[in-house]
Amino acid sequence: MNSRMNFVLVTLVSLAVAITYHHNAVAKTPASATDQFPAWAYPWAPDFKPAPDDGIPKHVPDSDAAFTITQERDLFFVPDWHPADHPPMPEAVVHGRRPDARACGSCHRASGTGGPENASLAGLPADYIVQQMADFKSGARSFAGPARSPITLMIAIAKAATDDEVHAAAGYFSALKPTPNIKVVETDNVPKTQIARMFYTTLPDAGMEPLGQRIVEVPVDMAQFEHRDSRAQFTAYVPVGSVARGEALVKTGGSGKTAPCATCHGPDLRGVGPIPRIAGRSPSYLVRQLYDIRKGKRAGASAELMKPTVANLTHDDMIALGAYLGSLQP
């Protein structure tokens, strides 16, 4: 038996064990999950008005490039601030194809880092990315919250993209090495924020407010993030104690409430075969995915495996999982 076939068989056996474990855990545990909608995880202010383009080319740290605001907001163009950070981008990533197949890198960035409003794609399995595009296209993957532009655009792009374009983009992002860009901070109070259309930004000199039971994820340098710089960094404020609580859920399954994440996602949580990495992902993004799966808004093959896992998770459990996983190295 060759090594590839052996790997596939091992993966399938692991999945079968995981499915059995998940179903047994759910059967033994009373339904305790809450349907409380985590509105904080789906920030959306469609009437938010960004500042107009002043026509002056912008710059970011450690780059000689310059782009105008109009260029940066063009979804058929990728501001490539650091060309040495990645290999040449395929056409689907750097320009897309009008009218509906927007450039993948315009939202997910040239290095696949994404932001709190969407997914980090760097290093994800190519087969997984291809399957998610197919799920967006078929309607198997949608959303539980408001019709935010990141998800509605993804659905439109998936429907417009050709198979060749999808495979080219998936191969490109899969070959990239994910880099750490999130600092998780436990706290009771956070700087006051506003929603800038689809993500949170701090309000300078506005004081502090209670965090409560939510995650607030903000760019460290708002201008750098808005310029779509792949090197932008983020701070995720999480409730005190949530990282340790999340670690216990991830590693033990919480006495049958869920399953240890390593069962499917690998011992380092960086993915196995077609199963994606969850270490070092955006905490608020992870919460959205957990909630979307539990509400049946992700119905693809991989999501079906997750349904028993998330069935008994509470709002606070999802916060704890996002906090711990976001604190890990990707």
Automatic annotation (TrEMBL):
Domain named Cytochrome c: residues: 91-177, 241-329
Coiled-coil ranges per UniProt: none
GO molecular function, one term: heme binding
Pfam families xrefs: Cytochrom_C
Secretion signal, residue range per the UniProt entry: 1-27
Keyword set, alphabetical order: Electron transport, Heme, Iron, Metal-binding, Signal, Transport
PROSITE patterns noted in UniProt: CYTC (PS51007)
The organism's place on the tree of life at top rank: Bacteria
Xref: PANTHER family: CBB3-TYPE CYTOCHROME C OXIDASE SUBUNIT FIXP, CYTOCHROME C4
Protein name: Cytochrome c553
